[in-house]
Write a structure and sequence with these properties.
Layout (H helix, E strand, L loop, with lengths): L33 H4 L42 E3 L2 E3 L1 H12 L8 H27 L6 H15 L4 H10 L4 H21 L8 H13 L4 E11 L5 H16 L4 H8 L10 E5 L7 H8 L6 E7 L2 E12 L9 E10 L6 H16 L4 H10 L3 E9 L5 H8 L16 E11 L9 H27 L2 E3 L1
Antiparallel strand pairs: 1-2, 1-10, 3-4, 3-6, 5-6, 7-8, 7-9
Organism: Aurantiacibacter arachoides
GO molecular function: peptidyl-prolyl cis-trans isomerase activity
InterPro entries: OMP_Chaperone_SurA, PPIase_dom_sf, PPIase_PpiC, SurA_N, Trigger_fact/SurA_dom_sf
């Protein structure tokens, strides 16, 4: 089962990345789930307490008049004390800087203010997770955090620890910000492994039934979706909808979907950057989402979509046909042939040289002849012998899939700076796709149920915490 996100390689651009240290039990839920979870009551209550569900149970008035107090409770500085542990304004600043560095565009001041509030909530959750692990005698050691930080620096950023430290300082963040996040996620992983995972059961009958349905679905379309879910009640629906509209504006302006999902989404997929993994539309369990996703193309963003419990923003990451090889999984051997023009070259000369370039490319007899022919006209070549079709920009994918070995794409580039083509030198087509195994299905169902219980576990920690805001 494909668990990675395609990255643009040699001839494209790498996507933005933000700091992540994904815990094993927070991967790819089979469906959204959070909307239905909102209807579940917390079982059991202490004497003198009443457990209720839904805003109507509080008998809230439509017209609210707040009692005026000397201090406005809605104006809080971004610092807090969580069961005695302090979260400082600097902690918030460093985490916000980390997120802003992942954005391609400038973020408006009002959006930064909302982001700071969300970051504070995340830091509170991380603090509660670390405290709970310590209380359960499962503390995360400094050595474990340092090892995870070194792995992140090497694997995610290609840096040494010292280089990573310097990079974080250059963007206004700090190593401590990432290490704090790592400690919180490692602590949460331990808590789920001991207190949740052993009590999750998936029967063989459930797995067999789902496997049979998947086998019957061979040849149908499967979707990989990203989701940002914002919970809402009738009382705050208008405000949540406005927040969702602002998030969409930032995403369409070039904001990182992964970064926004991690900070704002209230679904269990948030830790995965909103990635729901591969699924069939029926697994969404929401007709509104199913209808929208069915009309989406890869890379398309839609929303906010109103569903029971709140609003969803969907990103179509990819699509594929179940049980059949995807042509975009073919591995290509490509040669890029390019000709650069000196700055200030007259337009007529640029046109003449471009025409000469195209004539030379058309006369090339495959990749074996390309290097010499390119050198004869002052062009250069670059080879990439192992790149998947899906790793290339979409504009090239359909063109390259239709080429025979030795043929080149139409010319592209930015005149009067340069002109280029890609020549296909070889292709290894993908093999047959077996689809998810019974073990894969079992693991996915278990992860989904663990994520559901984890939401309740975290909610209990928040409810029982003593939190003071400065």
């Amino acid at each position: 089962m494909d668990k990675g996100r395609a990255t643009r390689a040699r001839f494209g651009c790498a996507p933005n990345r933000i700091v992540t240290h994904v815990i094993p039990f927070a991967k790819k839920a089979l469906h959204l789930g959070l909307a239905s979870m909102g209807a579940l009551a917390i079982a059991g209550a202490a004497q003198g307490q009443t457990t209720v569900t839904g805003s109507d149970a509080f008998n809230l008035p439509e017209d609210v008049s707040f009692v005026v107090t000397p201090t406005d409770p809605n104006i809080r500085r971004a610092t807090a004390r969580v069961n005695g542990n302090i979260i400082t304004g600097t902690d918030v600043d460093h985490r916000v800087a980390l997120i802003l560095a992942a954005q391609e565009v400038a973020v408006p001041a009002e959006e930064v203010a909302r982001l700071r509030l969300q970051v504070l909530r995340n830091l509170i959750d991380e603090t509660l997770q670390v405290q709970e692990a310590a209380a359960q005698e499962m503390p995360v050691s400094d050595e474990e955090v340092e090892q995870s930080y070194a792995r992140y620096a090497a694997e995610a950023r290609g840096m040494s620890v010292s280089e990573m430290d310097a990079y974080l300082a250059s963007i206004g963040s700090s190593p401590g910000s990432i290490k704090r996040q790592i400690r919180g996620e490692l602590a949460w992983d331990r808590l789920l492994r001991r207190n949740v995972a052993p009590f999750v059961n998936v029967s063989e009958g459930e797995v067999t039934e789902l496997w049979q349905r998947l086998q019957a679905s061979r040849g149908t379309t499967e979707y990989r979706l990203g989701e940002i879910f914002l919970a809402a009640t009738p009382a705050n629906a208008e405000q949540v909808r406005a927040n969702a509209d602002q998030i969409i504006q930032q995403l369409r302006a070039g904001g990182s979907f992964v970064a926004y999902a991690r900070q704002y989404s209230q679904a269990s997929s948030a830790v995965q950057g909103g990635d729901l993994g591969w699924l069939q539309l029926a697994q969404l369990q929401q007709p509104t989402l199913e209808a929208a996703a069915q009309q989406m193309a890869p890379g398309q963003l839609v929303g906010p979509l109103e569903i029971p419990g709140g609003y969803s923003i969907l990103l179509m990451i990819d699509q594929r046909t179940m049980g059949m090889a995807d042509p975009r999984d073919a591995v290509l051997s490509l040669k890029q042939i390019s000709l650069e023009f000196p700055a200030g070259m007259p337009a007529a000369e640029v046109e003449r040289r471009a025409a000469e370039f195209l004539t030379a490319v058309q006369g090339m007899r495959g990749c074996g002849d390309a290097d010499a022919a390119a050198a004869a006209i002052g062009a250069s070549t670059v080879n990439n012998d192992a790149i998947q079709v899906r790793q290339l920009p979409e504009a090239f994918q359909s063109i390259l899939l239709q080429l025979n070995v030795g043929q080149a794409t139409p010319p592209f580039g930015e005149l009067p700076q340069d002109i280029r083509v890609l020549m296909l030198c070889g292709r290894d087509d993908p093999g047959e796709v077996a689809g998810p195994t019974v073990a894969d299905i079992m693991a996915s169902l278990e992860e989904d149920r663990i994520n559901r219980r984890a939401q309740r576990y975290r909610r209990d920690l928040r409810r029982d915490a003593v939190i003071e805001y400065n």
